[in-house]
Every structure is written in structure tokens, then in C-alpha cells.
Design goal:
Helix content: 25-40%
Number of domains: 3
Strand content: 25-35%
Shape: globular
Structural class: alpha+beta
Oligomer: single chain
């Protein structure tokens, strides 16, 4: 799986993230052309610079915006109109507007008002709009990889903003960081800006140490400050290591022994684990102390999701604890494609050893739907489709 890892050892800001992502897909004309699709934010109102430089001896790219506008304050509706009236892809529009709605909620809560009454200050300025929309444009150009993020260095001390001098992290930033792992390191300064915290929350599927895998490319985004830590954000594009045609990675097995739970309640617990990203969930019948029958709930997940899914098990079942074991795994590559069969359209999964197809099978839910629509039994539908999708 293609993975983008954001290494926030020195913090995260919107311009740093755009600079880091740009180095992974370095086409300035393409980025500028995409941003220019926001016609209600005319390209004549700003200048973009993608400048090479270095911080503490580390080379990278600084994304600079020079705005020509006089009134940077905008409300949420105005910003949403700039984005949704553009010719950007619908997915970029959706993710960018979702990000600004989340930001409006945080700003409103921090200042005791409502999202519709929030008028952004720095964040409503053209540079912050370009930071946020530009990030989603570059993520789109990378093919929307899974994003993982390190714990975020938020800095310390105070920061001067439109509301005066505030402690680091500032109130809106702190709200955006709630529930995320943070730490403070280095000389006092603001290291995680509101825009940076927002984008980390919106993009990251999980927060974790550097995952196992193969580094394919790296990008370094530069900030504007100088300190004891290099003011940079590192973005690593990664994939699992391949050996002998199979993919090798590690997964975490979560287990709980349960003997005092209503059997009807297991279904909702299992569904919730799948909804929150479990790779597989199953139940095993076991004999517990004093001969009581029990159930072992087993959940397989990516290591970075183990903490969150353990908490889900504790909340959704009657267990008092969750065991963890890290397992090495070998798995096949696969792709899912939609085909037209004699029964209708359905998705088919093909497994590969290296580049060679090994086997092909219809997706169960699609096969079941077609069997019902055609008045066939499931085995009859499976047999007919199998003949049509068989490997040559």
C-alpha cells in the first residue's frame, strides 16, 4: 500500500506541508494551473514562489505566497463559495470545504461564537487558502495515498496573533489537536500552526512512529523560522518491501476473552471494529475458568491502529483488558476491477504473485446481489461468473 508519512519532529505548518508535498511531485506549472481554477480568487491577486533553500543544512522547498489583497478577513460561506465554484475536482472541493468547516468549528468554540459568525483572520487570507487547497491538490496528484503522521511537536512559549499574545498551542490549534499525540521540543516558539494542525487531523489515518516499509521518495518543506531544530517538515512516500513476489509487513493481533456478554451484542462490536479500520475480526469459542463457555474476540489490524481499536474493544464489550501481539505477515498483491458479466456488472478481485495473476474471484456482495436479481442460487451464480472471469 502506498503510504505518505509526515514526520513532524519540528512541527507542521501549511506552507511547510505544501513545500514537502511539492518535492514529491515537482511540477510548478501544474500546481499553479490547478490553483488558478479558483476563479473567485484571481491569480492576479497573488504571486506564488516555490523556492529552494535550506534550514540547518537540510535542503528543501519553501512555498511562498505574496498577496495583493487588502481585506484578508473572510467568512466560512465566502471561502466555501471560492472552492465550490471552482473547476477543481469534486474530491478536492469536498476535502477542502470539510477542512474549512472543521477550522470554523474550532475557531468558533475558541472564541465563544458559532461557525457561521466566524470571520477568519490569518486563515482567511489568500496564503492560507492556497496552503489548504494546494495541499489537497498535491495529495490528489499523488493518487490519494494513505497518510500516517508522527506525534506533532507543538513547541512552547507564546505566540502573537490577531487576538493578542496567546500560549502555545493557541486555543483554536489546541482544539484541533485534541485526541492527537503531541510533544514539545526545542526552543520556545509556535511549531504547529492552526493550518498545520488542521491538515494533520484531516489527512492522517493514524499517528504512529515511522512504519516498516520501503522509502520510495522524500520531500522537505521549509518554514520561515530559525531555531535549534531545523524548521522543516519531512514527507516520506513509502511502500511495503517486496520479496519473492509477496508483500511483507507486520500486523497487530488484539485478543480478549469474554464470558459475561450478551451474545447479541457481539455483532455491533464487530461492525464497529470494521468501520474503524480493522483488517479482520472473528470470534472463537473457548472454555474459561470453572468450565464456563466463553468467546475470544480477535481483531487483526495495522500496528498504528492498535491503540484506537483496543479502546474500541474496551468500550464495546465487557472485557477488562486487551492482549496484543505483533505478527509478521506475507500477503499477495491484488487489484479490484469492475467488469460486465452475463449476469450484470460486478467487482472482481485478482491476486498476483509478482506481476503474474494467480487467481480471480467475484466480490461476494456483488455476486449475492446479482443472484437475487436473476433468481439464481448463489452457487449457480458463482459457477456462471467463474467461467467468464477464469484466468486464461
Amino acid at each position: 500500500m502506498k503510504t505518505l508519512y509526515l514526520d513532524c519532529f519540528a512541527g507542521i505548518a501549511g506552507d511547510m506541508l505544501v513545500g514537502a508535498l511539492f518535492e514529491l511531485t515537482p511540477n510548478p506549472d501544474r500546481l499553479k494551473a490547478e490553483l488558478a481554477k479558483m476563479t473567485k480568487l484571481p491569480a492576479a491577486d497573488y504571486e506564488i514562489g516555490l523556492e529552494k533553500g535550506e534550514k540547518n543544512g537540510v535542503a528543501g522547498t519553501h512555498f511562498r505566497v505574496r498577496a495583493h489583497e487588502r481585506h484578508p478577513r473572510r467568512g466560512l460561506k465566502e471561502i466555501e463559495d471560492i472552492i465550490t465554484s471552482s473547476a477543481l475536482s469534486l474530491k478536492i472541493q469536498r476535502e477542502a470545504t470539510r477542512a474549512f468547516a472543521l477550522l470554523a468549528e474550532a475557531e468558533a468554540k475558541a472564541h465563544g461564537t458559532t461557525p457561521d459568525k466566524v470571520h477568519f483572520h490569518e486563515v482567511g487570507a489568500v496564503d492560507s487558502i492556497l496552503d489548504i487547497v494546494g495541499t489537497f491538490i498535491l495529495i490528489d496528484q499523488l493518487g490519494w495515498p494513505r497518510v500516517l503522521c508522527s506525534p506533532i511537536n507543538v513547541g512552547s512559549g507564546t505566540v502573537a496573533c490577531a487576538h493578542g499574545v496567546l500560549p502555545v498551542p493557541a486555543p483554536a490549534t489546541e482544539l484541533l489537536l485534541r485526541g492527537l499525540p503531541i510533544h514539545s521540543q526545542g526552543e520556545p516558539m509556535e511549531r504547529a500552526t492552526p493550518t498545520g494542525a488542521l491538515l494533520a487531523r484531516c489527512l492522517a489515518a493514524a499517528f504512529c512512529p515511522l512504519p516498516d516499509g520501503m522509502i520510495l521518495a522524500s520531500g522537505y518543506g521549509l518554514g520561515t523560522r530559525d531555531s535549534d531544530l531545523p524548521n522543516i517538515l519531512r514527507a516520506l512516500l513509502m511502500d511495503c518491501a517486496k520479496t519473492g513476489g509477496a508483500l511483507h509487513d507486520q500486523v497487530t493481533l488484539l485478543e480478549s476473552n469474554i464470558d459475561d456478554m450478551n451474545p447479541q451484542d457481539f455483532e455491533s462490536a464487530v461492525e464497529r471494529l470494521f468501520q474503524e479500520g480493522a483488517l479482520d475480526v472473528w470470534l472463537e469459542s473457548i472454555a474459561m475458568k470453572k468450565g464456563r463457555p466463553g468467546v475470544k474476540l480477535c481483531c487483526l489490524c495495522e500496528p498504528e491502529k492498535a491503540e484506537a481499536l483496543s479502546l474500541t474493544i474496551l468500550r464495546s464489550t465487557t472485557t477488562q483488558g486487551v492482549r496484543r501481539a505483533v505478527l509478521d505477515r506475507s500477503k499477495l498483491c491484488y487489484k479490484i476491477e469492475e467488469i460486465m458479466s452475463s449476469l450484470g456488472t460486478l467487482k472482481v478481485k485478482t491476486a498476483f504473485v509478482g506481476e503474474t495473476p494467480l487467481r480471480r474471484a467475484p466480490e461476494y456482495e456483488d455476486l449475492k446481489r446479482l443472484a437475487v436479481e436473476r433468481g439464481l442460487s448463489l452457487p449457480e451464480a458463482r459457477a456462471r461468473v467463474a467461467r467468464e472471469i477464469a484466468l486464461a
